[in-house]
Automatic annotation (TrEMBL):
It comes from the Bacteria. It holds the Pfam family TerC. Belongs to the TerC family. It is found in: Membrane. Its main location: membrane. This is TerC family protein.
Length: 233
């Protein structure tokens, strides 16, 4: 489409809207992954995590035609995101139980952010690619506009998590819900989910409750292990 034409601006507005609507998931992943870092590394992780997430989505958008042909992509991405959601709850518990760091290093946090965003980004990439009508300059501009929003949102979520640790469970629940949405949207499973509302609802409940329950049990066991290993007063 013609550069700076009404159609170009209309498509850009649609792309920005898509990015901003889905920015909440990005902010949650980045904030939860960075929460275990030393304070002087948290801002760095938020900034570079956002850059990495945007770069990943740009590359995925370039290959969107190929991605559309991959059978089972949404299913694999959804299952991977379930694991990421659990791991965002488990690091502190596993660290206490086994004595080793999980995501309390800068590169560990970066890896979690980029992998999770790649898994979550399928819906975003397909939506943005459709709104851009093949104009990659629109995709890049829209993503660049969304960067400060994601950075700001991540900073806010991180402050809230530090003050109210229970928010971590809300964030993990949101990611589990996103995973269920991806699995339900998998074309290979249309025959299972499309005609059956009960099956769709059951999957949402199963994944959200399962992730939160598994994270809570891991934390409880780790706490018990730490108490049993501590010397008696």
């Amino acid at each position: 489409m013609e550069f700076f034409s009404p159609a170009w601006f209309s498509a850009l507005a649609a792309i920005v809207l898509i990015d901003l609507v889905l920015a909440g998931d990005n902010a949650i992943v980045i904030a939860l992954a960075a929460r275990s870092l030393p304070q002087h590394l948290q801002r760095k992780a938020i900034l570079w995590g956002t850059v990495g997430a945007i770069a990943m989505r740009s590359l995925m958008t370039l290959g969107v035609v190929w991605l559309l042909k991959v059978p089972g992509l949404m299913l694999v991405g959804g299952l991977g995101l379930v694991w990421i959601a659990y791991k965002l709850l488990a690091p502190q518990a596993e660290e206490g139980a086994h004595g080793g760091p999980v995501t309390n290093t800068f590169w560990g946090a970066m890896r979690t952010i980029v992998i999770a965003d790649a898994l979550m980004g399928v819906d975003n990439v397909l939506g943005v690619a459709g709104a851009a009508h093949g104009a990659f300059d629109l995709v890049v501009i829209g993503l660049l506009i969304s960067v400060p929003i994601v950075v700001w949102g991540s900073s806010i979520v991180l402050k809230l998590v530090e003050r109210f640790p229970a928010i971590t469970y809300i964030g993990a629940g949101v990611l589990a819900f996103t995973a269920a949405k991806m699995i339900v949207g998998e074309p290979l499973l249309d025959a299972v989910f499309d005609p059956h509302l009960a099956a769709r609802l059951a999957l949402y409940v199963l994944l959200v409750v399962g992730v939160l329950g598994a994270g809570w049990l891991t934390a409880r066991r780790a706490t018990g292990a730490m108490q049993s290993q501590s010397p008696a007063a």
